[in-house]
Amino acid sequence: MFIRFAISNLFSFQKETEFNLFPGRINRLGHHKYKALGIETLKTSAIYGANGAGKSNLVKAIDTLKDFVISGNIPEALFSQKFKLTKKSIKEPVYLGIEFIHKNKAYYYGIHVNDGIVLKEELLFSGLGKKEDKPIFIRSSKPDKSSQIIFFQGFEGSKENVLLKGIIEKDLLKHDKSLLTLLNGLSNESFTEMKTAFEWFNNQLVILYPKSRPLELVHNLDVKKILLTFANDIMVSFQTGVKQIIPEKKSIEEFVGEENRAEIDKIVSEVRSSPGKMIGLMNQDDEIVVIDEAGKIIAKRLSLNHSGDKGQLVPFNLNQESDGTKRLLQYIPVILDVIINDKVCFIDEMERSLHPLLVKELVRKFSGDNSTKGQLVFTTHESNLLDQDIFRQDEIWFAEKNKLGATELYPLTEFKKEHHTIDLRKGYLTGRYGAIPFLGNLSDLKWNSYAAD
Question: Are 248 and 228 a contacting pair, CB within 8 Å?
């Protein structure tokens, strides 16, 4: 369960800025809240703002922190994408921090990074604002770039752990690497909490961009029957023209062609070099995923059947479908995940390539379902979603640039409490809540003059 995220000095964020899913004092739509460990969080949030306001940068920042944890390396963005509009910011560190609940425990994880050095990295048991936070580990950088680590109380109660700590500090941990990632890979019973926190980043935090192309989609549709059933129900319900989704799997020779032996051997070698690895093969007509299943190299692709003129099913390849259909397919695993699992998904530009009514119905269905377990956060320009039958007012956030050009985030609840019958869409489009583009006087643009030459 996601609680909050804080960021400073990265992308368009200058001063420390927070986004959270804390509910406000609103009585309506009580089923839009989850409760765990004595606190409440919201299940949904929509973030609005003009082009260039920084909505997408929030998603990118969360993804950057995830990348640091999963890869163990400092992402390029932390080198090159500091806030650039003040000279002071160039010299200051980037800060990213996130608070979440996983397996009935609350965690806070944060990093301070500057000039390719992890100045500070900490994993804490969060007190959720009610109790004092307790360190699991706090790693800080010394002037010589080496690290000093403080582990949780009791860790150094054995000689083995004291010795291990010294080896980690002196030999294993590098100044530009993640300690959380390192500890997750070590087989020591003392690192259980680190592994649990890593698992949340790896499995529970999902990021989806407009151009995301999940390789595992066809594989998951093949091995997860509940997902395939859900996908077929969605595609038919939204009248996309797709009547049936069928994951096809054959030998790689059947898809690629036996005559391309050198290419096949190269692909097979690459897949077998890393257990569980998938390789995507894309051409003008199709998308194929190659995977090792029980020692056999299998190629998989999606066949999407439409109805022909006499009722027969006519197969289409994925690349023969519209951008909207492909975008909806990307959402299907995510939507199912946040319905039946306690995952959190951040989607950038949720409405991209999709009809406004389709997006509204997806969000309405999720927000109105009392049995969901996960959380859905997305950026959008789609004003038709500003419907108080779908959202609580504390589920709506805005992104806007200040005079310096830095992104500021604020929830709708910062304004005087709006009655639940008020037209939020009209208020937003007329600038009542800010976060809309300032268009200036377009009549001053002398378009014809550009053709003078």
Answer: no
